[in-house]
Input
Amino acid sequence: MTLVPCYAPLHNTGITGGNYMSRVFFTADTHFGHAGIIGMCHRPFGNIEEHDRGLIENWNAVVQPDDVVWFLGDFAYRTRPQNIRRIFDMLHGTKHLVIGNHDHGKPGKVSATLQLPWASQHEQIEVAAEDGTTLVLNHYSLRVWRNMRRGAVQLYGHSHGSLPGTRQCIDVGVDNFGYAPVSWLQIKSRLAMLPALDFRPDTDEVEQLKRPEAVPAEESVLPTP
Output
C-alpha cells in the first residue's frame, strides 16, 4: 500500500522569493457554531461567537496560508451553511477532511460541511509523516490498526479529550491540545509520555498496556492485626 505523504514538497512562496517547506498540522472537533459544546466540554468561552472567534484566531496563529491541515472530523454543528463556509474561508492552510459523525448530512442529502472545498475527503486514510512514521487517521479511536506493531500511530478525535491514548494513539482534537492545530513533533512529545503497547506474539492484537511492575500479592497483603 502506497502511503500518502502528509507534507507538501518544497516550493517557492512567491512572497519572500525563497523556498518554504509547508508544515503539517492535525486537529479535530472544532464544532463551529455549536453553542452546546461550550458547556458539554467545558470550553473557556462565554458564548458561541467568542468560541468561534477564539478557535479561528488560534488556528491562524499556528497555521500559515501555505501549510497543510488534516482535520479529523466534526468541523461544525447546528449552524447555517453560510456560517460554515464563512468560517472555512477564514482558516489558513490547505485543508483535508477525515469525515466525522457530525459532518454527514441527513440521509439522502450532502451536508454543508461535505460541500466545502476540502483538498480531499476520507473516511480513513494512512499518511506518512516527515520522519516516515505511518499515521492512521480516523475520526474514531481504533482498537487495532494496520502495522501497529511496526510503529504505525493512530490519530483520532471524537472523544473530546476523554479517551486516554497510548504511545501509539492519541486524540488530536482541540479539547486535548489547547484549542489549536498541532504538529507531528508536538504529538510525538505527548505520545512519549503515554504508556506503551504490549503485543501478543506475531499478531497486531494488544494484550495489555505496559505499566510499572505490580507488587507481588504476598507482599501487598496487610499484616493481620
